[in-house]
Structures are given as structure tokens and as C-alpha cells.
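This part of the workshop introduces the protein records we will be handling. Getting from the letters to the C-alpha cells is the skill we practise here. An example says more than a description, so a record of this kind follows:
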Amino acid sequence: MTEPLEEIAALESKIAELSEAAEQCRKIRIVAKALTAAGSLLLVATVLGMWGLGAATLTLGIAAVLGGLALLGSNERTHEEIAASIKAHEARGPS
């Protein structure tokens, strides 16, 4: 009789762990979007010649945009995998 209870506890623990990982992905998504936006602003400011920004700022802006987009794409895939795993664990019940 304790086996189903142990299995349920293990499933709940795994779902809680996966939910924490999904929350971490949400936080990373926010940072990636902010990084992309900041890089975009740097690019616009540099192209428009604001504040005497130079080539280093242009390079930094390009790196921020590309880095933010890469982080966002990678993180999105990870989030999808975690969400699928949570659904699989929720669908799986004690045998």
C-alpha cells in the first residue's frame, strides 16, 4: 500500500523541481529580452550619432543584441522541454 504513496510523493517532488526550473527559464527570458532591448538602444544611439558614441559602443550593441537573441532562443527550447516533462509527469499516475 505504501508503494503508490511513495510513487506519488516522488512524482510531486519531480514536478516541483521541474516547476522551479521553468521559473528560472522565465527569469532568463526576461533578462534576454532586456539585453536585446538594451543592445538595440545602443545600436540606434550609435547610428544616430548621439552622445559621441564610437565603434566600441556599436560593437557592444551588436554583441548584446546577438547574445540576447541566442539566449532567448536557447532558453525557449529548454522551457518547452521542461513544460513537456511536467505534463508527462502530471499525466503519469501511480500504477
